[in-house]
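Dig into what follows:
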Amino acid sequence: MITDKEFTLRLIRQLTQALEKLILDKPEESLMQKELDFDTLMRDIFKMSFTEISSKPKQELINMVNERQERDHKDYYEMLGNLFYFTGKQGQNNDFLDKAKTFYELYLQTSGIFALPVINRINEIKKALE
């Protein structure tokens, strides 16, 4: 039997993978990747819409992640980084890009993984925000 936490974590990982493919401009034919509904996905994960999530300050979002189990923090940070990076680049929104940078940095810290694509995105964001 799948628990609510396991379902949410699976949803986070699927969203992260879908966003990663969109960021790399390699979308697949699946419906989820063609028509990502960020509001619905954010409601399933955080119980609020993407608009509500995106209007929150970074520290409040970090606090929301910190309320989850520590072992899951890296998944949340990676997902939020990809989410804000993708939407920030699409809409040329510097606030979203700044949030993406923060969440990518937190992802690298919590995961302990050397992820060159993420490091490259952080550097790209830094240049865009200058």
Notes: Helices lie at 4-23, 31-34, 38-46, 50-55, 58-66, 73-91, 94-111, 116-129. The mean pLDDT is 86. DSSP finds eight helices and no strands in the chain. The two ends are 49 Å apart (CA to CA).
